Amino acid sequence: MGEISFETSAYAKIILHAAKYPHCAVNGVLLADATKIRDGAKNQDVDIVDTVPLFHINHYVSPMAEVALTQIETLAQTNNRIIAGYYAACENFKDNTTDKCPGQKIAEKIVEHFPSAVFVVIDNRKMMQHLVTSALRMHTFVEGKWKPVDQNRFGFHSRYVLDTVSHLLQRGVQKDLVDFDNYLDDVTQDWTNLGIEKLIASINASNTIDCKED
């Protein structure tokens, strides 16, 4: 397995999704930079640049999931991105393994098209400790099973990721996050969460300025 890296907004949307629905299982897909992907290659580095929250109610392969994945894939291709993985959080606080997560069929569908796909499980027990450590567990598909990835192969693009996400949670930004369940209820809502991306970009810019001043 190659290295797995996350942009700030990609990690933030996962945590915000779980924080918005702490009483529900949630899931979504990971988007990687397609320009860094070698077609058909296994065990390659995966640069996760964005995530798209899917559901907190309808977690399984269904007509709604097919519609969502089709729309996401169309947008991804427009932006030189590829669906490169899946994330999920279990409803039960103590369940933090892939076999307990919802929508495994979606993850398996993704790995059929991208052999180096990543399955991210949100560790519910670490959701209250995000200030100091990542709340994600990485897995890749090996010999027909999802197997854990050494945490040393996982990292962030910015050293400010955890601080930024903490700031977003303190501001209550999770209430503004839109997943596909929200979108299907009201199609005027933005499932790309562009507003949150812009907010994160402004925070990142501020962090960069502070760093230069130091």
TrEMBL record:
CDD domains to which the protein is assigned, alphabetical: MPN_UPF0172
Task: Give residue ranges for domain MPN.
Answer: 4-142
**Coiled-coil residue windows:** none
User: What GO CC terms are in its UniProt record?
Assistant: EMC complex
Q: Which family does it belong to?
A: Belongs to the EMC8/EMC9 family.
The protein depicted here goes by the name ER membrane protein complex subunit 8/9 homolog
Q: What is the lineage of its organism?
A: Eukaryota, Metazoa, Ecdysozoa, Arthropoda, Hexapoda
The coding gene here is LOC113498052
